[in-house]
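ok trying again, last paste got cut off:
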Amino acid sequence: MVSLLRAELRRGHRSKTPLHLVVRKVGERGLGAAEPMLLELLTAAKPARGIEARVWQHHLLAALARCGSAASIATLEPIAAGTTMAAPHVRALAQLA
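nice, full thing came through this time. structure:
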Protein backbone atom coordinates (compact mmCIF):
# COMPACT_ATOMS: atom_id res chain seq x y z
CA MET A 1 0.00 0.00 0.00
CA VAL A 2 2.81 2.43 0.87
CA SER A 3 4.59 1.90 -2.44
CA LEU A 4 1.30 2.40 -4.30
CA LEU A 5 0.69 5.69 -2.48
CA ARG A 6 4.20 6.93 -3.27
CA ALA A 7 3.78 5.95 -6.93
CA GLU A 8 0.47 7.83 -7.17
CA LEU A 9 1.99 10.84 -5.41
CA ARG A 10 4.93 10.84 -7.85
CA ARG A 11 2.44 10.96 -10.74
CA GLY A 12 1.10 14.16 -9.25
CA HIS A 13 -1.77 15.65 -11.23
CA ARG A 14 -1.54 12.74 -13.69
CA SER A 15 -2.59 10.28 -10.97
CA LYS A 16 -5.63 8.14 -11.72
CA THR A 17 -6.61 8.26 -8.04
CA PRO A 18 -7.94 11.66 -6.89
CA LEU A 19 -4.77 13.40 -5.74
CA HIS A 20 -6.29 14.97 -2.63
CA LEU A 21 -7.16 11.47 -1.38
CA VAL A 22 -3.60 10.28 -2.01
CA VAL A 23 -2.21 13.28 -0.10
CA ARG A 24 -4.59 12.64 2.80
CA LYS A 25 -3.64 8.95 2.99
CA VAL A 26 0.08 9.79 2.86
CA GLY A 27 -0.43 12.21 5.74
CA GLU A 28 -2.44 9.71 7.76
CA ARG A 29 0.41 7.22 7.46
CA GLY A 30 3.11 9.81 8.22
CA LEU A 31 5.23 8.86 5.20
CA GLY A 32 8.34 11.00 5.61
CA ALA A 33 9.66 9.88 2.21
CA ALA A 34 6.74 11.75 0.64
CA GLU A 35 7.89 15.14 1.94
CA PRO A 36 9.71 16.28 -1.26
CA MET A 37 6.70 15.40 -3.40
CA LEU A 38 4.32 17.18 -1.03
CA LEU A 39 6.51 20.29 -1.10
CA GLU A 40 6.60 20.19 -4.89
CA LEU A 41 2.81 20.04 -5.03
CA LEU A 42 2.54 22.90 -2.54
CA THR A 43 4.91 25.16 -4.45
CA ALA A 44 3.19 24.35 -7.76
CA ALA A 45 0.09 26.07 -6.34
CA LYS A 46 -2.16 24.18 -8.76
CA PRO A 47 -5.05 22.55 -6.91
CA ALA A 48 -6.02 18.98 -7.61
CA ARG A 49 -8.93 18.46 -10.00
CA GLY A 50 -12.33 19.07 -8.51
CA ILE A 51 -11.16 20.67 -5.26
CA GLU A 52 -10.96 24.28 -4.09
CA ALA A 53 -7.50 25.81 -3.69
CA ARG A 54 -7.85 26.40 0.07
CA VAL A 55 -9.05 22.83 0.65
CA TRP A 56 -6.10 21.57 -1.43
CA GLN A 57 -3.69 23.64 0.67
CA HIS A 58 -5.31 22.26 3.81
CA HIS A 59 -4.72 18.67 2.67
CA LEU A 60 -1.09 19.39 1.75
CA LEU A 61 -0.27 21.22 4.97
CA ALA A 62 -1.98 18.60 7.13
CA ALA A 63 0.12 15.93 5.40
CA LEU A 64 3.29 17.99 5.88
CA ALA A 65 2.46 18.43 9.56
CA ARG A 66 2.61 14.64 9.87
CA CYS A 67 5.35 13.86 7.30
CA GLY A 68 7.51 16.96 7.17
CA SER A 69 10.91 17.66 8.64
CA ALA A 70 13.09 20.74 8.98
CA ALA A 71 13.37 20.72 5.18
CA SER A 72 9.79 22.02 4.99
CA ILE A 73 10.35 25.08 7.14
CA ALA A 74 11.53 27.46 4.42
CA THR A 75 8.46 26.71 2.33
CA LEU A 76 6.02 26.90 5.25
CA GLU A 77 7.33 30.08 6.94
CA PRO A 78 5.73 32.58 4.51
CA ILE A 79 2.39 30.79 4.80
CA ALA A 80 2.58 30.71 8.60
CA ALA A 81 3.60 34.38 8.74
CA GLY A 82 0.60 35.39 6.67
CA THR A 83 2.60 36.84 3.78
CA THR A 84 0.70 34.70 1.26
CA MET A 85 -2.99 34.70 0.34
CA ALA A 86 -3.67 31.63 2.48
CA ALA A 87 -6.89 31.30 4.46
CA PRO A 88 -6.59 31.67 8.26
CA HIS A 89 -7.03 27.94 8.91
CA VAL A 90 -4.30 27.19 6.34
CA ARG A 91 -1.94 29.61 8.12
CA ALA A 92 -2.71 27.88 11.41
CA LEU A 93 -1.83 24.51 9.85
CA ALA A 94 1.45 25.93 8.52
CA GLN A 95 2.29 27.15 12.02
CA LEU A 96 1.52 23.70 13.41
CA ALA A 97 3.67 21.99 10.81
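cool. Residues 53-67 form the longest helix (15 residues). The two ends are 25 Å apart (CA to CA).
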